[in-house]
Amino acid sequence: MQILKWLLVNWDSVLLIAMVAALIIYLIKTGQTKILKQIAIKFVTDAEGECGAGTGIIKLSEVVAKMYASLPSVVRILFTEKQLVQIAESVLAEAKKKWEANENLTTYIENKQQATPAVVTLAKSTK
User: Fold this and answer.
1) At what angle do helices 11-51 and 2-9 cross, to 10 degrees?
2) Between vectors from CA 44 to CA 39 and to CA 46, what angle results, nearest 5°?
3) Contacts (Cβ under 8 Å, ≥6 apart) of 89
4) Which of 98, 3, 79 is nearest to 34 (CA)?
5) What is the pLDDT of residues 68-89, one digit of tens each?
C-alpha cells in the first residue's frame, strides 16, 4: 500500500525515469543495428566464400550465429533471432552490389571457395 501511495505522489518522476530508460534502450538498439549491418556484410561475404552458391540456409544460419556471438551480452537481450535474420537478409542485397562493383571482393570470395570447398567437405564428412 505504501508503494502505491509513493507512486501516486511521485508519478511524474517515475514517468520521467521510464521515458529516459526507453530512450536509452532505443538509442542503444538503433546504434547497434547500424554497427551490426556493417559487421553482417563481412560475415555474409565470408559465408559466401566458405559455403559457396546454393547453400543459402546454411549461410544464413552461420551469419546469424556469428552476429549473435559478436554482440556484447548486455545488447543481446535487445535483439531477437528474427531481427538478426532480417538484418542479415537486408545486408545481402547490399553485399551483392559491393561484390559486383569490387573485383577484389570477388577474388576474395573465390579464394575462400578454393581453400574450403563446401561440397568436398560435406562429401568427406558423410563417408
Assistant:
1) 90
2) 100
3) 60
4) 79
5) 888 777 777 778 888 888 888 8
